[in-house]
Design goal:
The chain has 483 residues and is of the alpha+beta class. The chain has a domain of 236 residues: 3-Layer(aba) Sandwich (Rossmann fold). It is built from 15 helices and 22 strands. The strands form four sheets. Strands 5, 6, 7, 8, 9, 10, 11, 12, 13 and 16 form a ten-stranded mixed sheet that branches. It has a four-stranded antiparallel sheet with strand order 2-3-1-4, with helices on one face. Strands 14-15-17-18 form a four-stranded antiparallel sheet. A hairpin with a 2-residue loop joins strand 17 and strand 18. Helix 4 packs parallel to helix 5. The chain is globular, with a radius of gyration of 23 Å. The two termini are 35 Å apart.
């Protein structure tokens, strides 16, 4: 089963030549008929490149072609080296495939309010950051990824997006079942056979087989069965894949409708968007993005409403219980220093969790949900880790620097040039102006925080996370500036 394998940025390139599996070609000819020739030619073409702005960090209005079904989203004329754009690392925008941004239409048209939402298969974080921009500000978003390496990438991208009411978990769908009807919105961007990624990922082509498709659609139903009890009555389920076959797409929507008693919802679309309706007549409301017709990669989406009460919650199996790694109480820690609380805006709206190693600020209205999740799930991130302890010192974290609620007045700011910003992101030493005061300094690029340094006077310690640093020793010949 495949999901989009992209991590911190979309670095894939079009393949010079693609040998599609013969069985896949045969099935797609039967499915698309006369449309197949244009579809296949598009699969051999160059993928579109698109970004979505983080309006909490950027007020830019780029002179690029907008993505018609998404807000603050644009097609780029060519693929830049995103790695060498400091604003990419600052979370000012996200590199996201345009078709997948159609999730916005389902949310805007069918979700009026929400207290809690879940992105179940969230890595690397494109749809989670999209949801975070669409949901009410006081809604708690839980982003989950079961594979731990991918969950770490997800955590990084959620931190860069900067919203305090974000939780990252790493659990199997069945681990959520005991929570009961908690969520107003669940997005299941299901792991799939990855046919929609063929022109961007040659591994997806080599791994495809009819047997894998069969495994995928059955496992997708298992995922949906496990997570369905956690959706509140009247709640919204968004089901999506990046594949083309009807087994994983329309047939699964039909199964959700009949077996889970869900109501399929119509999404209003514009004819100019080139979205293809359901390819099975008995499934009325389903939406396909086909290369050659829409400007984007292969994508499928359906929105469904939960009609009746949730079924009785089943108890966790012993195996699931063993997989959970509950947060354990730690020995008593010193009280949270008052200065630490001043590092975030509206600091009275937070509860501070203080341990021997860190200080975490959790929005007060998020704490009940956070506590409930902690009983059953493995939480990788919750709220904002604002400080870590190193001996007697309290160090502001990079997560604080990336947060949208950072109190910038609490720290001296130092603006970096483009070259200095890249040196900082490489985690190299940088030189600050001689009149810069000692202590923790926020370094910025185009007035956007990149992170912290500790100025010692004769030198500045670079506090950028080592695991996030730019590893390439190459420097671009010219400045990379997407926004």
């Amino acid at each position: 089963m495949r999901k989009n394998p992209h991590t911190r940025e979309d670095t894939t390139k079009p393949q010079a030549q693609m040998n599609l599996p013969a069985t896949f070609e045969h099935e797609m000819r039967l499915l698309l008929g006369d449309r197949y020739v244009a579809f296949r030619e598009a699969l051999l073409g160059e993928p579109a490149v698109s970004i979505r702005l983080n309006k909490a960090k950027s007020d830019s209005t780029p002179c690029y072609e907008p993505v018609p079904w998404a807000s603050d989203a644009y097609y780029l004329p060519e693929r830049p080296a995103f790695t060498f754009d400091p604003l990419f690392h600052a979370g000012s925008y996200y590199v996201q495939e345009a078709s997948s941004m159609f999730v916005e239409q389902a949310v805007r048209q069918h979700l009026s309010e929400a207290r809690a939402a879940l992105d179940l298969c969230a890595a690397p974080g494109g749809k989670s950051t999209l949801l975070r921009s669409l949901l009410p500000d006081d809604c708690v978003l839980v982003s989950n990824e079961v594979m731990r390496p991918r969950a770490q990438v997800l955590t990084e991208n959620i931190i860069k997006w900067g919203h305090p009411r974000s939780i990252v978990t790493s659990n199997y769908p069945a681990d959520f079942t005991p929570l009961g009807p908690l969520f107003d919105l669940i997005l299941v961007d299901a792991p799939c056979s990855g046919e929609g990624m063929f022109r961007k990922d040659e591994v997806a082509v080599s791994e495809w087989s009819p047997e894998n498709v069969s495994i995928c659609w059955q496992r997708q139903r298992d995922i949906l069965t496990d997570i369905w009890p956690t959706l509140r009555p009247g709640g919204l389920l968004i089901y999506s894949t990046c594949t083309f076959n009807t087994h994983e797409d329309e047939e699964n929507v039909r199964w959700i409708t009949t077996e889970l008693d869900a109501e399929p919802l119509q999404i209003a679309i514009d004819d100019s968007w080139g979205i293809t309706p359901s390819l099975l007549p008995e499934v009325a409301h389903a939406y396909r993005f086909l290369p050659g017709r829409t400007r984007g990669e292969g994508f499928f989406l359906a929105a469904l409403r939960k009609r009746n009460s949730a079924p009785e919650v089943t108890q966790q199996t012993e195996a699931n219980a063993k997989r959970n790694k509950k947060n354990k109480d730690k020995r008593s820690a010193p009280p949270t220093p008052a200065e630490c609380k001043q590092w975030i805006d509206n600091n009275r709206g937070y509860i501070y969790k203080n341990t021997e190693t860190e200080v975490v600020a959790i929005p007060t209205d998020m704490e009940p949900i956070q506590k409930k999740l902690t009983e059953h799930l493995c939480l990788l991130k919750s709220g904002i880790t604002i400080a870590t302890r190193k001996g007697r010192d309290l160090l502001p974290t990079h997560e604080l620097a990336m947060s949208n609620v950072l109190n910038t007045e609490a720290f001296t700011r130092c603006e970096l040039t483009y070259t200095e910003a890249l040196n900082y992101l490489h985690r190299e030493a940088i030189t600050l102006p001689p009149d810069t005061p000692r202590g923790f300094i926020i370094v910025t690029y185009r007035n956007t925080p990149l992170g912290f340094v500790k100025n010692l006077g004769n030198r500045a310690n670079n506090l950028y996370p080592n695991e996030w640093r730019i590893r390439s020793g190459h420097f671009p010949d010219k400045q990379v500036s997407v926004l």
